[in-house]
Amino acid sequence: MDRRCLVVWLLVSLTDKVSSQVKVEGVKGGKAVLPCVYTKTIMERDMVTIFWRLNDEKKVYDVAAGNTVLTQQDPEFKARAQTFPEEYSKGNYSLSLRDLRVTDVGTYFCYIPPLNVKQQIQLHVEDGPEARSSSMRASLVPAVLLCLILLL
């Protein structure tokens, strides 16, 4: 009986700590905000520690003791990533990523070690509107030709 209680307690506590995967869509050259919000426990700003990672490997953005730490940031994200320190007091640790690139696609993780929280965000980046409209036109050409042939 004690073992079942332990399993239930573990399941309940783990669902609090890991959120389901969120999907974010972006356009090449544009901007995306990757959400990371945890309001069950609010940290004082000088206690805020957050690690943003891409595919659990690339260091996207770090905050330690409330201060931005970019000394080991992957060069791909230099001057393109930022958080919102004024939002930390509301439990918002989201990341803004600008000048999106196709290489930014992947699974981002927001780790908040003091709270034992890990959130997962999937980013997908599409080509800009010009590329979409030209590929759409290209895919319409065979359909239009087929219609013309059928009408003749």
UniProtKB/TrEMBL annotation:
All residue ranges annotated as the Ig-like domain in the record: 28-112
Compartment(s): Cell membrane
SMART domains: IG
TM ranges: none
Any one GO BP annotation for this protein: cellular response to lipopolysaccharide
InterPro entries in UniProt: Ig-like_dom, Ig-like_dom_sf, Ig-like_fold, Ig_sub, Ig_V-set, T-cell_Activation_Regulation
Main localization of the protein described in the UniProt heading: membrane
One Pfam family hit: V-set
One Gene Ontology cellular component annotation held by this UniProt entry: external side of plasma membrane
Signal peptide, first to last residue: 1-20
Protein keywords: Cell membrane, Disulfide bond, Glycoprotein, Immunoglobulin domain, Membrane, Receptor, Signal, Transmembrane, Transmembrane helix
Membrane topology: Single-pass type I membrane protein
Gene3D superfamilies from the UniProt entry: Immunoglobulins (2.60.40.10)
Protein name as catalogued: CD276 antigen homolog
Record lineage: Eukaryota, Metazoa, Chordata, Craniata, Vertebrata
Encoding gene (name): LOC115818216
